[in-house]
Write a sequence for this structure.
């Protein structure tokens, strides 16, 4: 459950206009920039290779660290493998003391942040100068990075000018080009006088003892070229076996990170390189080269946990942040780890920084799955965040949610509650189809949108009265309505039946069915999710039907995943597999069974389509419904910007974090308005509820309908 | 167009796309091309990390003739004030407009890192097709040199308000002179 503190931090982030403008612009242009940078490069193949080489490294980590140590030492370097972050810091502290170092220039190293290097050395009277422009700025501000690749996104040029004025004791104008010049000037003096350079590694190669650093500003090269002592600090997750393995990472890293085909500099250091020891005498010698490798219990915990081992494959490109609808609004500070942010940051925070903080911030994830599409290491970030949520829920169940979810998994209780709600809601609906305001503590639920009202008569009571006319019957399909179709959007269920009847299928509704269990799953309540799975597997009798249809992609996805709750080979497992294999979302099934035909009433209408996260990314359906719509005479389909970005519903998300969901919805509505469409087609009742509610709250005359309903209406089937 | 010319054209286009400048010179003209570049850009001082190839091209005498103050020793000291920096790059990558700095020699790294205007001299015959070809070449080396660097255009940042700005800690401007050596 998101705490009050987190909610306050979220409010603060939302108030930062620089952050929302800069980050908003960046995130809006990022996908196209990234796409362009991949021209001629096969992203899927690249990330598969990354997965392969990093997985190999994870399985052979001890060998690789030993091999690296041997090779780096042979080339004149010194390697220290630290078994804890404290041990790493102590070792570095001693080295700095022993060598009499007073000034250190540092290019970006997230590992050094983990061990609190700057603060610790500062307490010893050593100046640790951040040289990356963004890191320099936030060091002046006394803040932590808001983004892993662009740490100072939350500040505008005026604020930067003020920090620089204070630092240089000269007036700095808020002109970006001038500010960059100031940074060059003040940093030059540090580079040429510092006794030690500290770098972070993007990759370390065992076979050659090589470390890689990628930068754009050139500070990394200064750090690696000028000081006589050079220290690398990095974690065991940076290892790959061979030089050739490293290539895949640098194919994806710049493209995913900043949409560049390559950064200005990629530098590879193998052992001790030559350095000028006395510039006046022009003498040269080998520098002192050290590598401190973090092999702490947190990193070992990642490697030792099969549910999270994949985290090792992360290349720290930050792409998961750049496409995250919640991150685009909030930036990284709310993640609160001081080091890692966004989806991957939530996972890294759990293992490397603070489990308590991770428990909090996992709530920010919408589970929309967009990060998975771009992840350079092919990580299943949302699934891993779900695992965190489950574990958090198991150890600390929220009593209110627990009560609600227990009730939902008890079909009779849940259904009778919904029937009561249908009557009890009246004071709030004021006779419309919406609940616009809820009393007191529930009011956040209606922020920026109206909730749908519960249908007076549930679909299960209507179903027996429906006359199905099926000519040339081809088969029978069982309908899984899910709660929203059963108790709120009965018109969608009716349309699904009419559509399927029109292509020769009779539809039956098994009455024992209940909630699909997705709410429990997404709250992390595995026990109740399993209970509903058992109930529905028995109730749906998949063996008696040709197919199972659902008009809610979240339900469809949930039905397909039931098998995960049961032991492989067990009777329930087999039944779950059969149900999963027969379960399809409406559009896909209707399309595959011959629903595509040139038809329609020819009445012109402009429609735009919103992709549901689950339908597009989990079920892979996005072409079929568009074809169904465009083949319908009269429909002019206009694509909106970011049609596949989450609408903010996210299951229970819009109830948990309405302050984040509301601005995400507002963006979606803006994109819809920009198309000039008078109707939005959706395939998910959750999206429908969210977007329709947003239209109502914003008083916009744009209709929102399920594709099944649009088809039925345009073909005159209902 | 010959294969090498086609590679050069791709190299040039890709380098220009990342704010670099590029010219092609016959071996006999290379020194003049560099000296003209200094005149055109108004550069008065430079450090040069000499190599046999640069000596063969006669870069230093040509610059001196053109009135440029040239430093070939005490590079670390002079790089703090000299405007220009010249070194030989070991390879070029057509597909990216990158040049490669390979080797331990610190002076070559200093001039390419500290100067405001960096001029890389690369032999046309060393331009490889793409990133993978370059990596293959590196992997085939019997021992990886102490330093290997990909350099692609001048230094840059977008750290303030995501506005792309060229020239931060590394060179503000980068020129590559490709010398026809075949």
């Amino acid at each position: 459950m998101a705490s009050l503190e987190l909610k306050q931090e979220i409010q603060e982030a939302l108030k930062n206009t620089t952050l929302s403008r800069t980050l908003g612009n960046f995130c809006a242009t990022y996908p196209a920039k990234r796409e362009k940078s991949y021209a001629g490069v096969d992203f899927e193949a690249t990330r598969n290779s990354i997965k392969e080489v990093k997985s190999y490294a994870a399985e052979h980590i001890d060998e690789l660290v030993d091999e690296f140590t041997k090779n780096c030492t042979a080339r004149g370097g010194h390697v220290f493998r630290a078994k804890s972050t404290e041990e790493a810091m102590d070792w570095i502290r001693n080295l700095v003391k022993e060598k009499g170092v007073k000034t250190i220039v540092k290019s970006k190293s997230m590992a050094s942040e983990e061990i609190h290097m700057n603060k610790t050395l500062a307490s010893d009277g050593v100046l640790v100068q951040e040289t990356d422009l963004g890191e320099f700025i936030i060091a002046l501000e006394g803040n932590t990075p808001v983004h892993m690749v662009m740490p100072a996104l939350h500040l505008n040029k005026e604020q930067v000018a003020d920090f620089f004025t204070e630092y240089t004791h000269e007036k700095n104008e808020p002109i970006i080009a001038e500010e960059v010049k100031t940074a060059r000037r003040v940093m030059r003096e540090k580079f040429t006088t510092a006794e030690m350079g500290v770098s972070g590694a993007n990759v370390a190669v065992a076979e050659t003892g090589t470390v890689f650093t990628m930068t754009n500003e050139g500070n990394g090269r200064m750090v690696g070229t000028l000081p006589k002592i050079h220290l690398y600090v990095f974690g065991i997750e940076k290892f790959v076996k061979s030089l050739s393995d490293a290539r895949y990472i640098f194919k994806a890293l710049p493209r995913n990170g900043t949409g560049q085909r390559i950064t200005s500099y990629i530098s590879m250091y193998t052992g001790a390189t030559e350095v000028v020891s006395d510039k006046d005498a022009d003498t040269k010698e080998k520098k002192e080269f050290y590598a401190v490798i973090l092999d702490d219990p947190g990193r070992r915990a990642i490697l030792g946990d099969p549910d999270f081992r994949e985290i090792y494959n992360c290349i720290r490109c930050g792409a998961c942040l750049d496409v995250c609808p919640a991150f685009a609004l909030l930036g990284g500070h709310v993640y609160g780890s001081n080091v890692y942010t966004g989806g991957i940051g939530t996972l890294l925070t759990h293992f490397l920084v603070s489990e308590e903080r991770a428990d909090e911030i996992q709530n920010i994830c919408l589970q929309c799955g967009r990060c998975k599409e771009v992840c350079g290491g092919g990580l299943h970030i949302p699934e891993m965040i779900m695992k965190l949520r489950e574990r958090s829920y198991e150890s600390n169940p929220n009593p209110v949610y627990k009560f609600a979810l227990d009730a939902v998994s008890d079909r009779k209780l849940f259904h009778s509650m919904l029937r009561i709600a249908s009557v009890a809601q009246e004071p709030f609906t004021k006779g419309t189809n919406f609940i616009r305001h809820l009393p007191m503590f529930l009011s956040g639920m209606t922020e920026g949108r109206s909730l749908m009202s519960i249908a007076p008569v549930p679909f299960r009571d209507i179903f027996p009265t429906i006359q199905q006319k099926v000519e040339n019957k081809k088969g029978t399909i069982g309908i899984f309505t899910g709660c929203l179709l059963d108790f709120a959007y009965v018109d969608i269920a009716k349309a699904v039946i009419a559509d399927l009847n029109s292509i020769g299928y009779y539809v039956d509704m098994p009455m024992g069915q209940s909630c699909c269990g997705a709410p429990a799953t997404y709250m992390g309540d595995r026990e109740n999710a399993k209970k509903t799975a058992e109930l529905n597997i028995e109730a749906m009798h998949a063996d008696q039907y040709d197919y199972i249809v659902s008009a809610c992609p979240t339900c469809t996805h949930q039905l397909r995943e039931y098998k995960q709750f049961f032991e492989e080979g067990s009777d329930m497992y087999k039944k779950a597999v059969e149900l999963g294999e027969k379960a399809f979302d409406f559009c896909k099934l209707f399309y595959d069974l011959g629903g595509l035909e040139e038809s329609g009433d020819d009445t012109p209408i402009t429609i735009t389509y919103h992709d549901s996260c689950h339908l597009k990314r989990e079920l892979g359906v996005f072409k079929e419904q568009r074809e169904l719509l465009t083949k319908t005479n009269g429909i002019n389909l206009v694509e909106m910007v970011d049609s596949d970005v989450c609408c903010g519903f996210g299951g229970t998300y819009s109830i948990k974090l309405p302050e984040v969901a509301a601005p995400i919805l507002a963006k979606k509505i803006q994109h819809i308005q920009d198309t000039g469409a008078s109707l939005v087609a959706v395939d998910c009742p959750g999206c429908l509820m969210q977007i329709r509610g947003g239209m109502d709250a914003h008083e916009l005359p744009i209709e929102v309908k399920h594709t099944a309903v649009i088809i039925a209406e345009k073909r005159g089937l209902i | 167009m010959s294969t090498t010319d086609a590679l050069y054209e791709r190299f040039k286009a890709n380098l220009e796309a990342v704010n670099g400048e590029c010219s092609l010179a016959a071996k006999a003209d290379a020194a003049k091309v560099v000296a003209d570049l200094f005149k055109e850009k108004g550069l008065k001082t430079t450090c040069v990390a000499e190599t046999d190839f640069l000596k063969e091209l006669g870069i230093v005498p040509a610059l001196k003739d053109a009135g440029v103050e040239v430093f070939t020793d005490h590079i670390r000291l002079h790089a703090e004030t000299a405007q220009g920096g010249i070194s030989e790059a070991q390879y070029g990558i057509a597909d990216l407009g990158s040049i490669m700095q390979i080797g331990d020699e610190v002076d070559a790294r200093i001039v390419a890192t500290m100067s405001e205007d960096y001029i890389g001299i690369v032999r046309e015959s060393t331009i490889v097709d793409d990133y993978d070809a370059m990596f293959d070449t590196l992997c085939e080396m019997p021992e990886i040199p102490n330093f290997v660097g990909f350099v692609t255009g001048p230094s840059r940042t977008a750290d303030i308000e995501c506005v792309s700005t060229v020239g931060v800690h590394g060179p503000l401007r980068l020129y590559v002179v490709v010398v026809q050596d075949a």
